[in-house]
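From: lab user (bench 3)
To: helpdesk
Subject: output format question, protein + pyridoxal-5'-phosphate

Hello, I'm new to running complex predictions and I'm not sure whether the block I got back is the full result or only part of it. Here's what I submitted:
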Amino acid sequence: MLAERMKHLSGSKTTGMRNLARKMRAEGVRVVNFAAGELDQDTSPSIKQAARQAIDAGRTQYTDTLGISELRERLAQKVTRKTGIQYTADEVGFSAGAKQALFNAVFVLFQPNDEVIIPAPYWVTFPEQVRMAGATPVFLPTQHHDFQIDVDELAKCITPRTRGIVLNTPHNPTGAVYSARDLEAIARLALQHNLVCIFDECYEELVYAPAVHHNIVKLVPEIKGRTVLVGSFSKTYCIAGWRAGVVAAPQPILKAIANLQSHTASNTCNIVQYAALAALDPANDAFVAGIRAQLSTQRATALQLIGKIPGLSCVVPTGAFYLFPDISELLGKSLKGQRIETVDRLAELLLEHAHIAIVPGSAFGADHYIRISYAIPAEEIVAGLTQLEQFVRSLA
Ligand code: PLP
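Helpdesk reply: Thanks, we reran it on our side. This is the complete output you should expect:
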């Protein structure tokens, strides 16, 4: 009954683990949820206040597809500031999370026969969206370079069918932050081969010193005409469920995105648009700095504890809020006679016996890794990683 295109589309594994953990919690089991892709924290009072005011002011109407003009003006100013290149309001738009912005971009840019390069491990949704557009994802392995992109290897992935590359820095799930030197080289390569660059910087504010986030347009201004910048309010402002994302692209691409969105979701929630406007107020910079400082401390705690677990090795992440340890040494071991053949089985046993939810690396195209989010209260990090250590030590 279903259309052909749905045959290979499965639900997001990250959502799956999150739901399973929630269900166990509802049943009274104390589960430490390392599987969440969002902050476990309240948003700032001024953002909440702006949403309430929008309701009280009767902001019930449809808006322009890509957002109210005040918001687009502010977004354009922000993108101009961070790229050092002029972006106008008709080169930016507001979407229902970065996910919608990414889907729109991929859908208007790629088609059957096109190849799109995605560094692997990758955020679950990137390849699925490329496939939904009928194009083919081509994976560039990064495990052997501490999750950084080797530009020579990237060049070897380019064929006459390559149309684009999806970059994500800071990176989910690895926490890698790409260097200015690599991004510059990637941009030059993209220009040389006429590739479109989708640049997902959802975690741009969550980078830990001395690491620094670099925007590709700022580094190589000529790439602006071939780049779609995607950002999110979800992580930075703790409003993941409100669905607030941003896209910046050259006008012809943005126009196509507006046309597509006008026939799908139309505008995003009107109230959230006013909340986003308040979020962009400089008064909220301190809120974001607080989140970053807190995550930085939690990262240190998590890294220290994971370092004590035998059989796990972890590249130090410098951005986002995930650890992505290699668990190869655990595969083939057994728990009470049950052999752990795959990372998926490991995830099940961890939930069942250690009461911790993680996301298996298989969700990200990396079968020998697990993703652990440290955006949860410090005491939960300590409890959960202690349980993980006990679990690992009990394996035979
Ligand atoms: N891009 C990356 C790399 C992400 O990790 C996520 C969410 O986890 C998104 C995009 C989607 O974010 P949003 O909540 O804004 O849709």
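A quick orientation on your result: The CA atoms of residues 105 and 223 lie 16 Å apart. Let us know if anything else is unclear.
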